[in-house]
User: Fold this.
Amino acid sequence: MAYRRRRSSSLLSKLIKTICAIAFVIYAVWYGYSRFFTFNPKQILEESVLKEKTFASQVTEVVSPRHKIKAYLIEDKANPIISISFLFKNAGLASDDANKQGISNVVAAMLVEGSGELDSQAFKEKLENLAIGISFDASVDDFSGSLITTSENQEEAYKLLADSLTKPLFAEKDLQRIKQQAYKSFLMQKEHPNSVLSLELAKFLYGKHPYGRNPLGSIDAISRITEDDLRGFLASHLALNNLIIGAAGDISPEKLGLVLDRIFGALPQNAGINFVRNPEIDFKQGDKNINLPAAAGQNISSFAAPGVSRTDEDFYPLYIANHILGGSGLNSRLSKAAREDKGLTYGIYSYLSLADKSPLIRGGFSSTKDNYNKVVSILNEEWEKFGRKGATKQEVEDAKNYLVSSYNLRFASVANLSEILVYMQKDNLGRDFLQKRNEYVKKVSIEDVNKAARRYFSTENKISVNVGQF
Assistant:
């Protein structure tokens, strides 16, 4: 994926995502990219049933009749499945009170631990028996949730989600269990080199800014959280005025309007959220090496450079430039130079990180300690050369063709569709974005790409944190 939003899951699910995903990120990059590019991507796209899919006139803005709650909808009756995605803007980890760091994670975990007349076990059994999925997540910027259900069980699904948001049990025994899971997550986090790297980079970049916090929160703060704190969070953070909704699947606009009132109508009108300022990052501070015996002969690196927001005029030129340099798997310049030609790393990559207050170009690699300095030299050489000379005409055309032809593969499920509709609204991309997106890519010229390369790819503005044996 060429760009990512900074996200983190709640507690046990966060542990799985943070420890497992980060722990095996190098393997995942190597295996995933290797497997993908072992096959002919053009052939994969040509054979895809989604290749010719279009979205003309498919996105409908729905407004609920009673509370005037808005949502984007793509109605698709091909399968009897309905997906609703939603987020509460600026209600994520960065907005947690300083003395309650991690409360958003705890709330996300507790909202599926029983509601209404159902305790935790009964709630989860009902979800399983009716094939209903309900989940919540606290990212660094936002608090999000999702519902997926069959058309047959939709009425019960809407009630369960509404009760989760407005009638959660927050039982003490469940809260204590979630706290224990959090404690175990903190212990495991300290023992894994990739987790250490992630935490150290955040502190190195952001210092005391909320973006520099541990994504799990503070174990001391979590240990003090009470039921009243959880209910206070709901009242102050989850409201109608910071709510964004996307829906897709077997549901009409008229039906969705009624459903919006039913699920979200009882929420508070206005949120009261802590303001998060833009961080000040010193990109001239150099690199930081952390000796860690537990790295077992592997050195891992994570680097960052200034990026752009989703709506910046440089976004698409930089998006294409990054795809060429480090975002296209084994075909990227970095991978060819360090992995394919030299065999010095298991994987090297870059991507655009779209955190609201701090868009960055991010990337990383791993290698043996003996090869580490060689990979660093190749990375800096390719980064600087790309900034000076830019891309070739063929590279730009190949990147644009791939990014255009592969785009529809993102719409393989209604869950993906509903989430995309949420971010279209959050980023103010317009209701016709799905029809225009590929044209945005196509109209980028080689001059635009190379201008972005000159502006953003300079080793003087790239910093890294590295963990291993030096």
About this structure: The radius of gyration is 23 Å. The longest strand covers residues 298-306. The first helix runs from residue 11 to 23. DSSP finds 18 helices and twelve strands in the chain.
